[in-house]
């Protein structure tokens, strides 16, 4: 239960948000788990465990706010460079997460999706994710989209190879390739009209993109927050959404 004070504070921030301008697709680079743990003299994986709890909380808040797609960068194609123990821990997290959380996802009409090179994940990780997708496939509310073994340059390479093959087979003329064709070749294509995030949040004070959604963020607003992912809470989230709502999005044009 929230204390009275906290509930009250949440209410104030929530009232402050324009519910007609909630971003449809929010993507988050969940950074700072390791530093959060190290600051507390805990092993790095304790930060990932706490980070998993943050994922649960933020998923519920995002769904309640009416966000259509929440994309979370859970494991990058570069994260394999980490110590084996840490990689193994991260690979076991989806099973732990979905084992305890799928009933809540179903209750809240949330559908699980995944994007990334899932065939390179351990079989048990693949099973955890695919089972969760199967169990939530008829849900029509928010899409909880995990980027797992995802890298944007690799995604673009794979997409371009696919288009080149279509040209080679005579199914596509080079002159027909346009922005829509390329969007269709990206891993976000199943998200349809919500493929491109309107808002990208990165936690823990780092201000870089780290090979995330390079094609899709052409017109996204970026919000960088100082909190490490395990301490990212409803207040920080709503304040990032408020920052988004205060931005003047011109898409290269002029303000009306
Ligand atoms: C970045 O922090 C975080 C990750 C690489 C892993 C993200 C995973 C979670 C938040 C757990 C939830 C996942 C699922 C599938 C439910 P970091 O380790 O790079 O932190 P640092 O920069 O402080 O070292």
From TrEMBL:
Pfam families documented for this protein: Prenyltransf
Chain residues that bind substrate: 32-36, 44, 48, 76-78, 80, 82, 202, 208-210
Molecular-function annotations in GO: ditrans,polycis-undecaprenyl-diphosphate synthase [(2E,6E)-farnesyl-diphosphate specific] activity; magnesium ion binding; manganese ion binding
Gene Ontology terms describing biological process: polyprenol biosynthetic process
Annotated catalytic residues: 31, 79
Gene Ontology CC terms, in alphabetical order: cytosol
Known EC number: 2.5.1.-
Cofactor: Mg(2+)
Enzyme class: transferase
Chain sites annotated for binding Mg(2+): 31, 221
InterPro entries in UniProt: UPP_synth-like, UPP_synth-like_CS, UPP_synth-like_sf
Cofactor note as given: Binds 2 magnesium ions per subunit.
Keywords (A to Z) from UniProt: Magnesium, Metal-binding, Transferase
Family to which this protein belongs: Belongs to the UPP synthase family.
Subunit description: Homodimer.
PANTHER family: DEHYDRODOLICHYL DIPHOSPHATE SYNTHASE 2, DEHYDRODOLICHYL DIPHOSPHATE SYNTHASE FAMILY MEMBER
Annotated NCBIfam families: PRK14830.1, uppS
Role description: Catalyzes the condensation of isopentenyl diphosphate (IPP) with allylic pyrophosphates generating different type of terpenoids.
The name this protein goes by in its record: Isoprenyl transferase
């Amino acid at each position: 239960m929230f204390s009275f004070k906290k509930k009250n504070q949440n209410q104030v921030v929530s009232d402050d948000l324009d519910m007609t301008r909630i971003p449809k697709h929010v993507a988050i680079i969940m950074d700072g788990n390791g530093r959060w743990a190290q600051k507390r003299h805990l092993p790095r994986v304790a930060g990932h465990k706490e980070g998993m709890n943050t994922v649960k909380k933020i998923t519920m808040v995002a769904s309640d706010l009416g966000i259509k797609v929440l994309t979370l960068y859970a494991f990058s194609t570069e994260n394999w460079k980490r110590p084996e123990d840490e990689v193994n821990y991260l690979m076991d997290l989806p099973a732990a997460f979905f084992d305890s959380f799928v009933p809540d996802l179903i209750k809240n009409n949330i559908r699980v999706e995944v994007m990334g090179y899932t065939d390179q994940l351990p079989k048990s990780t693949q099973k955890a994710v695919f089972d969760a997708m199967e169990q939530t496939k008829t849900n029509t509310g928010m899409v909880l989209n995990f980027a797992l073994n995802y890298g944007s340059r690799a995604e673009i390479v794979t997409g371009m190879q696919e288009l080149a093959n279509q040209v080679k087979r005579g199914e596509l003329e080079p002159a027909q390739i346009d922005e829509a064709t390329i969007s269709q070749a990206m891993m976000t294509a199943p998200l349809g009209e919500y493929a491109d995030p309107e808002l990208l949040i990165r936690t823990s004070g780092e201000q870089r993109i780290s090979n995330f959604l390079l094609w899709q963020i052409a017109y996204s607003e970026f919000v960088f927050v100082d909190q490490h992912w395990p301490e990212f809470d409803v207040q920080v989230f709503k304040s990032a959404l408020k920052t988004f709502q205060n931005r003047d999005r011109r898409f290269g044009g002029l303000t009306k």
